[in-house]
Amino acid sequence: MYTGRGNAVTALDGVSLQAHAGEFVAVQGPSGCGKTTLLLAAGGLLAPTSGRVVVNGRDPYSLSPEDRARFRAETIGFVFQQFHLVPYLSVEENIRVPSMALPAGNARARARSLMDRFQLSQRARHVPAELSTGERQRVALARALMNNPRVLLADEPTGNLDAENAGIVLAHLAEFAQEGGTALLVTHDARAAQYACRTIHLRSGRIVPQPEAGQAALIRDAAGEADARPSAR
Question: In the CATH scheme, what is the code of domain 2-228?
Fold first, then answer.
């Protein structure tokens, strides 16, 4: 809940969601339904006014700001629609940014391995302005994986991408889950359901149950019958 112009707004209302290791969970819903708030709360960036957040067995909001920042660096990778790359850093330098919070002797080798994985090695010394949109998102995804996180949180990462590059990003998120990580994606992209283990639907800050396939067919059939009936006047 937050207050805007004197009015209390409940961004998330009684939401209870678990995502386990090995799962890729997609969260869908209209703009303003609470998707990004859910992601920020799960990422230790926005403390809920009530309830509890547990990530990898720990409540990040029970930690001091310094310890919470380190916990995020160790445990969580973030991927955003707008990439948020540092414009004056090269591809390799952007990927290595998370290692500043967790210095490691193998940071350069790790970054180069990720560049190979995401087919960015030939772009290592290029700055973001010299990259295509798809390449920028791959850099952002590689950066999110730099510290070997347990959880990936992705906020509309395919929103600016064409179908081919969107498929590449979704496939990498699914691969991360298959390797034992937890991926939580908020998106308007209907293609996400093809890659995710399950899809959660939010509306007005609440999880909305979706009918099963058989039930959905019955609903469509019933609606069709209703449309076919003559109206009484």
Answer: 3.40.50.300
